[in-house]
């Protein structure tokens, strides 16, 4: 028999960090999670799977409108017409207490109870599926410990939304140990919650398939985001295939500016990297963050206002593939060819400025004056500005003053160095 294991669909969840600009693939990005889900249903039908399991976080939270629920129902009807049942546990994002709007579901969909773990038997396939939904968002008990004992003579699947032993960046919901899951006696654990694909154990298989669609720069995957097709033979041996169903592919590209002597040369190198990255996307939208690194003569020109560079790079993206390349942002992590230590030793105005700037970062009087000036500025700034610019909010809370002074020093030194060289 054959089944499809998916998790963390986050239907209609917005993509984060992608500003609008002319020529950007706005529509594709807006509907990315919805289209990825439809692609998953297409895959289930094309591969003639016997059933589908979804290990939590089908939704991203309470629906903004009934459209979200209707999309799910529509796709379940398609599976029903293909005689494919679906088994679902609810996770922290779509827990019983979180989703307030309700729609009836087709008969081919079974959502496991949040009150206790139960078992669904598929006698014609020789399968038992055990699962329990989240009653509320914050579940910190090991609910897997109360899952039923395995059924004799069938292939036992545990469907569970969990952080397992704990995963960086994920709240430790429904914690449990890999060893305890393996000892339960099931043949396959279909997990959800962790968005990176990860196999925790080989026998029995314990698997996070990852989410269907990356939604921000921290959700990258070189082989794409998607789901897992699982084939089981008569001896209960398992073979798995990861299949990408995403429609937007995130990439973090590092561009080395060392040895480049002009912004035109840098833009040309960025274009080459973007083309290579887009070629690996198999027709999907590429959403890229660029980080410029290296010891370079361009450092002074780059650390200031780089809107011109961003605009030019976005323009090159349109040439690579119209409505298929989206530049999220450009981060500058370059270094000057002239060391601050050398500048500090100079006995001229530039040396004086460098020494004064370095002193300011540890001078309480200067820092107090700066805080007073910033406070006066913040009194004139509305809350909307803090919501739009998180860095500004960090300054208001007093967290990023050292970073601001360091940034200001770097800008002044780069500007003076550039003027001197001219």
Describe this structure in words.
The protein starts with a strand and ends with a helix. The chain has helices at residues 26-30, 32-46, 66-81, 178-183, 263-279, 299-302, 307-320, 340-344, 349-360, 364-380, 383-388, 390-396, 401-421, and strands at 2-6, 51-55, 86-89, 109-111, 118-122, 127-131, 155-161, 188-192, 198-201, 205-208, 226-232, 238-244, 248-256, 285-295, 325-335. With 422 residues, it is α/β, with parallel strands linked by helices. The longest helix has 21 residues, at 401-421. Helix 9 (349-360) runs antiparallel to helix 13 (401-421). It folds into three domains: 2-246, Purple Acid Phosphatase, chain A, domain 2; 247-337, no CATH class; 340-422, no CATH class. The mean pLDDT is 88. A six-stranded mixed β-sheet has the order 4-3-2-1-11-12. It has a six-stranded mixed β-sheet with strand order 5-6-7-8-10-9. A three-stranded parallel β-sheet has the order 13-14-15, with helices on one face. Helices cover 34% and strands 22% of the residues.
Q: How are helices and strands ordered from N to C?
A: EHHEHEEEEEHEEEEEEHEHHEHHHHHH
Could you tell me how far the N terminus lies from the C terminus, measured between alpha carbons in angstroms? 73 Å
State Rg.
27 Å
Q: Report the total helices.
A: 13
The CATH topology label of the largest domain is Purple Acid Phosphatase, chain A, domain 2
Record field, number of beta strands? 15
Major beta sheet, specifics? 6 strands, mixed
Note poorly predicted spans. Answer: none
